[in-house]
Amino acid sequence: MNQLSIDLIKYMKFLHQFQEVERSIWLQKNKSPRNENDSEHSYQLAMVGWYLAEKLNRKLDVNKIIKYALVHDLVEVYAGDISMYNSAEKTLETTKQQRELAAIEKIKVEFADFPEQIKMIMEYENKGDPESKFVYALDKLIAQVNITEIHNMTQAEAGGTKEDFNSYCTQKIKKSDPDIYKILIDLQSNWEKDKNFYLIKN
Q: Is there a contact between 35 and 25 (Cβ–Cβ < 8 Å)?
């Protein structure tokens, strides 16, 4: 095989590793629950980001939104995923940044022939432009929509408290993007009509 074929196989194997990173969000497949994986999550984020950027008529670079969405969790191939609604994993948050930086360095070495991928990962991590902030806020929002609207679960059933919701979702979205925050507030006002929405499961 020539080098291009070898490199192609290597990158596709990397993407398969990405598919194997499980998130805490469940999917329903043939009525048998399983966890969503990072690949499915990133595709959904890219499509919803594209959809909302046009629907909101924002002056945002849609290509950047799609690319940010596709790469935003690639570091989790090596760093792993942390569910902020899993108390057993919250202690890992202190090392999250270090593990992700190490993962970025590993990706830089393994895929030095794909510099734009590294560029997009770094720009997303830095949150220095409206597109990265938009994707970051949307990432938080769609997790809540999947939990509540798609799977008809309360925050309690997802393992989260009102304090978790406020710190991990509401405040981070508010600081990142005004339009995504407005959508969240609209949805949240409806979700909170359920008096059990924040109750801790027994």
A: yes
